[in-house]
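Reviewer 2 asked us to include a model.

Predict the structure of this chain.
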Amino acid sequence: MDNYSTKWIKVSEPFPHVAHIELARGPVNAFSQEFWRSYGKLFDSLVADGVDVRAAVVSSAFPKIFTAGLDLGDAGNLGGDGADTSRDGARSSLAMRKMLLEFQHAIGAPERSPFPVIAATHSHVIGLGVDLISACDIRYAAADSKFSIKEVDIGLAADIGSLAFLPHITGNHSLVRELAYTARPFSAAEAEKIGFLSKVVPGSRDEVVKEALELARFISTKSPIAVSGSKHLITHARDHSVPENLAYTGAWNAHALMTNDILENLQATKQKRKANFAPLKVPSRLDGPKL
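Predicted model (structure tokens):
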């Protein structure tokens, strides 16, 4: 799977059907416009090409930091190539809005992917880093992780995902507002307490990546239809009422229950063997590279 690696992103397959996506833009994984575009394109390409990924882990390749957030030295990030000041304010604003929506779309790519994405953080997770991991399904953090919604210290409201995701993830609007208004750092222990994390792993990068990859490996042994359906329906539940989600789930499972994965699960259990599931996407001669 390393043919999907790019200049600043390393992609490997530590276990069958598990993608390890490592952020590797030295020295501190600051996100330039090229970097965040590449990040979003990676997930979209894996899906479009029909690569048989069943779980993924996003981590930093650097032992001392996860990400410093937005690269403030990159003019494109601040609208330098989007907002043309020679035009009137309305047209400049439309260009800026277009760039921000593209930015949100790129960082939100894990949520669109049919496979679960696990964030494995350590050390500093600043600004855009919180946006990035908020769009992931599961968040594991090393005990030395320190988070900060830093945008207010730059002079703007966080606009790539944190303020949209965090109230739903934590259910604590008071604390989300406090963290957003003050930009104060908060620890892995506090992040776990408010429900932002599902696990804090003693140690730093190596320890949390190991735990996250093991979780991804375990998930990858389950039915892709069941896992991808669960992901889709949980996301739908977040954005809809309980009656709406139950009705939608009924329609969804009316076709999902036709899967051969159920029979394969039953036979594997009876025969005391590992289940062997087909890829989520049925390959065709027009599809791109596979694992």
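Residues 285-291 have pLDDT under 50 and may be disordered. The two ends are 6 Å apart (CA to CA). We have added this to the supplementary material.
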